[in-house]
Structures are given as structure tokens and as C-alpha cells.
Amino acid sequence: MTSPATNERMTRLLSLVPYLTARPEGVPLPEVARDFGVPERQLRRDLELLWMCGLPGYGPGDLIDLSFEGDRVRVTFTAGMVRPLRLTTDEAVALVVALRTLLDLPGLAEQEAVSRALAKVSAAAGHAAEGVTPVALSVDAREQALAVVRQGLERGRALHLHYYVPTRDERTERTVDPMRLHLVDGRWYLEAWSREVAGVRLFRLDRIDAVEVLDEPAAPPPQAAPRDVESGVYRPGPDAPVVRLRLARTARWVAEYYPVEEVREVDEPPGGLAVALRTHDLAWARRLVASLGGAATVDEPAGLAQAVAADARAALARYGA
Amino acid sequence: MSAKRAERLVNLVIALLGTRQYVTAAKIRETVPGYEPDDGTARADEAFKRMFERDKAELREMGVPLETGRTSVFDTEDGYRIARADYELPEITLTGEEAAAVGLALRLWESAQLAGAAQSALVKLRAAGVDVDPARAPVSPRLDSDEPAFEPCYAAARDRRVLHFDYRRPDEDAPARRRVQPWGVVAWHGRWYLVGLDLDRQAPRVFRLSRVVGTPKASGPEHAFEPPADVDLAGLVAGAFGGRGEEQLVVVRARPGAAVGLRRWATPLGAGPDGDDRLQLRTTEPWRLADQLAAYGPDVLVESPVAVREAVVERLTRLAAMAPAGDR
């Protein structure tokens, strides 16, 4: 791939005249700028440049001609640039892969329309879209809740959720005002104002056991600010208590799976890692340590190891072991 | 890129699109504005040559099908032209619904690896007369964009070139060199993987990009191999994460009201002898299930099969040894 900025401007310059040709009635400049994703100032520079281009001879009748009526721009002479350039392999891949992904997400778009669009785009892309596509996206598609949640968002209605909270291993019921859907790290999340806790929360869709669109309108209060999910969904505060673990070789994956700090290699256990995790939820930490079946030991807090061991002893007693 | 160079490239494309004849470099130099004029000096010739080579490379890089050839047998040197049929995007018309699907789909790449390609694809579709609305749906999909190994792996898979890299699994102390025919890059559960034929093991393998150490290097010619035509990239990644074994039935007893997470996918078998609920679980990964079951502590007791029951007892025994009894 060449430098993206170079390519971007050339693609735009070769596309502007065909774009205007396809819209003979003319287009207001701000709309053109929006369609090409550039500021109006840049668009004007592009149009001025195109005005200097044309067929060899470069006389008045050979140059690209544009006319402005108020804010509207029209093309009156194309110099033979009537269609955009074919899609590159990268462009075809971006389109085809994204549409295929949408095809796997029934709740999100009209499936028939997606497969028709996919067929048309593949045909237009020609050989650029042939063969095995070098990228695939796999997102969680089994979300029964997706279609219902989306309906609530589109119709602007509140939702009633049965929601599973794994850290407390309990099922909760709540009424929420939906705000947005996020796809983060391959999972869907509903961002909503939770009325019970009076705050914005993210609900993982695969943990919604039942959802119902209510008749009442969704009304997130003005203080319901969207969350920034750029840096991930789970962000413990810097003041959250620290849990220090030692991971044996077989549990080192924990360090790539959860946000950890202060990772260092240790000799005990051999090939092990010492990590620090921050969490307000000790029940979660207890579950994590217990699910590692001894491959992680606790350096801190001492009470955590004791709690896990006591649970295990109580369980062993039931097995008669 | 300078405005001068952009102008020259646009003029070059228009000139070569507008002719059926092959146009020689000398003729291009004479007609297309912006090239170093011929003043008879070798320096000017050299400057023109460099400029023209750079322009040709740039256009080819963008996908402009620049042809070389001779119009007649009397021509003494090769010329250039652009065949309109190869240059132009074929007719494409999308209904409003189809265009909306395209708009929504392309948002998947927002701030992710192929964001630039998605944006230029969108520009070209609009230039072809398709009105793609920026999707207004309140949906914001996001892919993990912070993956330096993506670009070289993707490019090698696209160009079908052999790839070398150092790879470190978390349970290994040092990275090991891998040689792979890359079939493709897959986002699975939000993480990126490379799928390909491991040349040293002569078998398909899945590599997590975040475990690649340093920058992968492609070597050898393009189109050096062809992935199996029916390859299912996402399926191979999913398969690499277990689930390939035979399905087993596991029966457990859970205390009433406890083990809510298990109940979400279990089949209830009614009440057990001591007031517990009997639950049936299906799994293809019994050891992973044993990890989960052990984490429920005294709330869950495994009835059968014996192997899973023993695996849970083994885990519990290790956990119990983490702190002395009576210390709570």
C-alpha cells in the first residue's frame, strides 16, 4: 500500500468528476464535501485543481468545466472521466468482508438486502474479489437479543431486561433507556441508562436472558453521558484494590486476556509470571483463581487465598474426599 | 503529494484514457503539462525519466491498468495507454436498502485496519452514482485496531507470499521461528489471528497476532501458493479453540438458587436426593468445564462421568492446599 494520504487525494480527484456526472442536477458543495469526507476548504482546492486538467491541447474546449450556481456545483465538460476507477483488492476486501460479516448478524440489517448488495458489489469488484479473501471477521452472531434491542433503539422505547451478572452469579431484572449498541472485541454491548442504579451501564448481549420492548419512551436523562469504549469495556479505576497473582506456565494466558499491570517473569513457579490486577469485585477475583484450579496462587490479599481454599475444602467434604 | 504532481497525474490519466493508440514516453513528455521539457541535455532527460517512472509506479499502485505496447509494427519503442473497459468500475446500482447495508457494513472498519480502503471504496461507489448514506443507526462496531502485525500479515496473505516470523506462546519461554503460507487474517472474538499452512509442520495452524514478536517478513515471489479453495478461515480459528472433541454429557447437582450461570445453558433433570437440582450439561471440552465446576465450590457436585468428577476433585484438592485450614 502506498502512503494513504497520496492515494486518498488521487482517488478523490479521479472520482469527483464521475460523481458530478452521475448527478447532472448538481450538488451543494457542503454535501459533496460530506460525501467525500473532507472539509469544504479541501474540496474547493480539489475542484480548482481539476479545473486546470483536461485533454491534450488543454485549450478552453479541452479542460474539465464546472459551473457553480450559488452553492451548487455541476460538471459541464468531463474530459472523458465519466466513471470512477475500479476497486483495488484492498477496497474490495473491505467491502466484501464487511458485508459478509453483516450477513452473519441477522438482527442488524435486512438480510435479503445485505445478500443482494454483496452479490452486486462482488460482481462490480470483478477479479479483485475473487478467490479466498485474505480477511475474515467473526463476531458473536447468536445474540437472540440483538433484534429486540435494536428495535427498542429504533423506536426510542425503554427495555425490560433479565440480565445475568457473572461476577455475582445472579440473574437481575431491570428497566433501561437504550442509548447505543457497541461491538467491542467481537462482542455486542448495549449502552443504556439503568434506572435502578441511575447510571450509564454496558450490558453484554450474550448475558441478556430475556428482553422486552416497553411501551414507554426511552428517556435517558441529560446527565447520561456516552461511555468511551475506545480503550476497552472494562476499565477499573486506579483506586481499585490490587490483587497480586502468580501464574504457572499453564495460566500465563491470563496476562493476555485480562488487563494486568506490573507483569514480571518469576522463578517460582518455574516459567511463571507475577501480575497485578485491579478490581473492586473480590468475588470475581475469587472465581478467577478458583477456575484456574491451582495454576494461579495469590500473593495478595491474603484473605483471597483463604476464601478459595475454604470453599474447596467445603466442596471436597461433599465429595467425601 | 504536491498539487503540481497531482495535476500532472490527473492529466496523464485523462490523456491515456482518451487514446486508443499507445503513446510513447517522448510524446507524453511533449504533451502532458508538468514534465521536464526536452532541452537537449542529458540532465533534463534523466530528470524526466525519473519523474515518469515514479508516476507510472504511483498509478499502478492505485490500480490504474497502465498498458504498454506498440500500435503498429513500424513503432520503434513501446508506448502507453489505459483501456477504458479495464479502468472503469462496472455499472452498479443499489436500492436504498442495499446502499444502507453497505453504509452500515463499512462502519465495521471505522478506526480499524482497513479504514482507509473502506473510505476509498465508499468514495468510488458514490462516484458511480450510488447514494450511500453515512449509516445513522445507533450502532458502533469496533475491531481491535492496535495490532502492528496485522498489516504485514494481511499484505502477505493478499499477495500470497510466504511469511516468516517469531512466535511466542504464553506457555513457552522463548519465541520460535515460523514459516507459513498465510491464507488469511481473522478477527475472532475481538482478537486477530493468522491462519495458514505451517511449512515446517506441513499442517494448517492458527497464530494469534499479539504473540508475534517483531515484524513478520514476507519473502519470495507473489502468488507462490493458493489456499485450499474451500478453506473456512473463521472455522479454523474456532476449531483451534477446542470444541473438536466428542460431545459429552455431564450430570451435576447444584444447590437451589446457586450456579445460576450453569443453569442458563443446562437441562434440568429435576430434584436430587438432598434437595439439590440435578442438571445435565453438554460439552466438548470436559477439562474446561471441570475448571468452571470447581470454581463453584460446594454449590456444585459432579455426579457423572467419573473422569470429570475426578478432575474436579483434583482441582479442588490443589485449591484447598493454597491456604491452611482453620485460618479463616
Summarize the structure.
Chain A is of the alpha+beta class and 321 residues long. Chain A has helices at 4-21, 29-36, 40-51, 89-103, 111-125, 145-155, 254-257, 282-291, 302-319; strands at residues 27-28, 65-69, 72-77, 135-138, 157-165, 170-184, 187-194, 199-204, 208-217, 242-247, 261-266, 272-278, 296-300.
Notes on the protein architecture:
The complex is a heterodimer of chains A (321) and B (328). The model of chain A has no long low-confidence stretch (mean pLDDT 87). Chain A is α+β, with helices and mostly antiparallel strands and 321 residues long. Chain A contains 9 helices and 13 strands. Chain A is 35% helix and 28% strand. Chain B is α+β, with helices and mostly antiparallel strands. The mean pLDDT of chain B is 88. Chains A and B meet through helix 1, helix 2, helix 3, helix 4 and helix 5 of A and helix 1, helix 5, helix 6, strand 4 and helix 7 of B. Strand 6 of chain A pairs parallel with strand 4 (139-142) of chain B, so a sheet runs across the interface.
Helical/strand content category of chain A = alpha+beta
Helix and strand pattern of chain A: HEHHEEHHEHEEEEEEHEEHEH
Low-confidence stretches of chain B: none
Summarize the amount of helix of chain A as a percent range. Answer: 25-40%
Q: Unreliable segments of chain A (pLDDT under 50, ≥5 consecutive)?
A: none
Helix share, percent of chain B: 25-40%
Oligomer: heterodimer
Distance between the termini of chain A: 63 Å
What series of H and E elements makes up the topology of chain B? HEHHEEHHHEHEEEEEHEHEEHEH
Strand content of chain A: 25-35%
Structural class of chain B: alpha+beta
Question: What is the tally of beta strands of chain B?
Answer: 13
- What is the residue-mean pLDDT of chain A, rounded to a whole number? 87
Looking at the structure, what is the overall shape of chain B? elongated
